[in-house]
Amino acid sequence: MCGIMGYVGPRDAAPIIIDGLKRLEYRGYDSAGVAVHDGTSLTVAKAEGKLGRLAAMLAEHPLVGSCGIGHTRWATHGAPNDRNAHPHTDPAGEIVVVHNGIIENFVALKENLAAGGADFSSETDTEVLAHLIAHEYQGDLLEAVRRAVGKAEGAYALVAMSRREPDRIVAVRMISPLVIGIGKGEMFLASDVPAILHHTRDIVVVENGEMVDITPDGWRIETLDGRPVDRAMLEITWSAEQAERGGYPHFMLKEIFEQPQAATDTLSGRLDEDGSLVLDKVDFPDGFGRDLDKIWITACGTALHAGHVGKVVFERLLRVPTEAAFAHELRYADPLIAPGSLTIAISQSGETADTLAAAGLAKNRGSRLLALTNVVGSTLSREADDILYTRAGPEIAVASTKAYLTMLIGEYLLALAIGRERRVIAAATDDELVRALRGIPVKIGEVLKTDQEVEAIAARFVGHDDVYFIGRGLDHAVAMEGSLKMKEISYIHSEAMPAGELKHGTLALVTAGTPVVVVLTQKEVYDKTVSAIQEVKARGALVIAVAYEDDTEIAKHADEVLRIPRVPDLLSPVLAIVPLQLLAYHVAVARGHDIDQPRNLAKSVTVE
Ligand code: G6P
Question: CB within 10 Å: which end of the chain, N or C, has fewer?
Answer without folding.
Answer: C
